[in-house]
Design a protein that fits this description.
It is a single chain. This protein is α/β, with parallel strands linked by helices. It has one domain: Rossmann fold (3-Layer(aba) Sandwich). The protein is built from seven helices and ten strands. The strands form two sheets. A six-stranded mixed β-sheet has the order 6-7-8-4-9-10, with helices on both faces. The chain has a four-stranded mixed β-sheet with strand order 1-3-2-5. The longest helix is centred in the last third of the chain and has 17 residues.
Length: 247
């Protein structure tokens, strides 16, 4: 393990993503810092974190609870703002956007997969996938076709009309992955995506994450406590006391 808290990668050439997506340049973070005021010294959660991930790059982040993993994921997902440093996704600084523009940027460019699938119980599998598109307005026939295609990609072609209660835990997580990929995100963020699954199902879900991220040329960042999942990533880093150190 290196002593540097900076993760770098050779920048890949930008390419058009599936469906004519705009050219991508990946994730670039420089000296990211997050702290909270306290009656005494500030509570520092992220300490000058830097990383560079070209399109299609997968990274697993491990570390003990409270080390800053989830905070870093929230900043990358634009759900939280850092105290200092810079962050760009495909050359755009989301932190400089107005609230409405930031929400649109997050919707169109970032996909989320959580430990809990967070599916809407009253909607079918296909409708849950389409939810990501409906946030942009009315869904088109092409959108419906893409939702069905994604369900085929995750092995649920015959389950598209089933409600979440009629699906297994692994199947629900597959629907959640399909939903996260609906808008062809430049960045996929996965927070303990296999945490609620048995080992066999976890391995299958991991396969789907890698396959779909590669198909869309998306950066994939996963936070996990699973040594098995982390070992499958070609690049791994560890959060320790707010610092990011690459294995």
């Amino acid at each position: 393990m290196t002593s540097s808290s900076t993760i770098t990668a050779v920048d890949a050439q930008s390419t058009d993503g599936p469906g004519g997506a705009a050219a991508r340049s990946g994730v670039v973070v420089r000296d990211l810092r997050k702290e909270y005021p306290t009656p005494g010294d500030p509570l520092v959660v992220l300490r000058d974190v830097s990383l560079s991930l070209p399109p299609g790059a997968p990274l697993a982040i491990v570390g003990p609870s409270g080390s800053g993993k989830s905070t870093l994921l929230n900043v990358l997902g634009t759900l939280d703002a850092p105290t200092g440093g810079s962050y760009t996704l495909d050359g755009v600084d989301p932190l400089a956007l107005k609230p409405a523009d930031l929400a649109a940027f997050r919707r169109d460019h970032i996909g989320f997969v959580f430990q809990d699938h967070l599916l809407l119980p009253q909607l079918t599998a296909a409708e849950n996938v389409l939810v990501a598109r409906l946030a942009r307005g009315r869904a088109s026939r092409d959108d419906s076709d893409r939702a069905r295609e994604l369900l085929r990609d995750v092995g649920l072609d015959g389950r598209s009309s089933h409600l979440p209660a009629e699906l297994s835990g692994g199947e629900r997580q597959r629907v959640a992955i399909a939903r996260a990929m609906m808008n062809r995100p430049a960045l996929m963020l996965a927070d303990e995506p296999t945490g609620n699954l048995d080992p066999k199902t976890a391995a299958q879900v991991a396969d789907l994450l890698f396959d779909l991220a590669a198909k869309s040329n998306s950066v994939l960042v996963a936070v996990t406590h699973s040594a098995e999942l982390a070992a499958r990533f070609p690049r791994r880093a560890r959060m320790h006391d707010g610092s990011l150190v690459e294995d």
